[in-house]
Hints:
The chain has 5 helices and 11 strands; from the N terminus they run βαββββαββααβαβββ. The protein is an alpha+beta fold. It has one domain (5-195): Alpha-Beta Plaits (2-Layer Sandwich). It has a 5-stranded mixed sheet. It has a two-stranded antiparallel ribbon with strand order 2-3. A two-stranded antiparallel ribbon has the order 4-5. The longest helix is centred in the first third of the chain and has 10 residues, at 19-28. The two termini are 29 Å apart. GO terms for molecular function: 4 iron, 4 sulfur cluster binding; metal ion binding. InterPro entries: 4Fe4S_Fe-S-bd, 4Fe4S_Fe_S_CS, DsrO-like, ET_IronSulfur_Cluster-Binding. Residues 5-35, 82-111 form the 4Fe-4S ferredoxin-type domain. Pfam families: Fer4_11, Fer4_2.
Amino acid sequence: MGKRYAMVIDLRKCVGCHACTVACKSENNVPLGVNRSWVEELETGKFPNVSRHRLPRLCNHCENPSCLNVCPVKATYQLEDGTVLVDYDRCIGCGYCIAACPYDARFINPERKTAEKCTYCHERVEVGLLPACVNTCIGGARFFGDLNDPNSEVSKLLATQAVTVSKPETNNRPQTYYIGADEKSLRPNLLKIVGGEN
């Protein structure tokens, strides 16, 4: 059995510093005004009982990605390890994949005029390094690894923690998991509990 990469984000540890966003932009030369990875700030409740929540966002590298089959030139493709990538030489910038993604994880690169998204820093992972966002997370909130390795940190977390995924009703089977998400306090249908211990 080959590798199957996933990311786990522990919201209890996210301090909202946005170091992940900065590291991603720097590592991947992402232009101003767009992001491959970002931290969404959510406010819930009614005054004076208001709460703020941080939700790191990125491509979910879905097991069944809706962006894959809509590409008319097959520029979006999936590796055996589950990583979803874009072939910039093939992409015509039509935006079909952006419309098909239910997570708002794709955008048109304003300089290259092609679709772009998080790649789990595939070039780094191939040489044994962690994605830039995981490597730089000062709160230690991000974990990356092989789901098919029972000894990997992500496998252990999924086996012992209650986790949530974004919009499971889409049947995309996202591979970015969240720990510590209070379902009642986040946007409706954004996150739902899918496993682990409660």
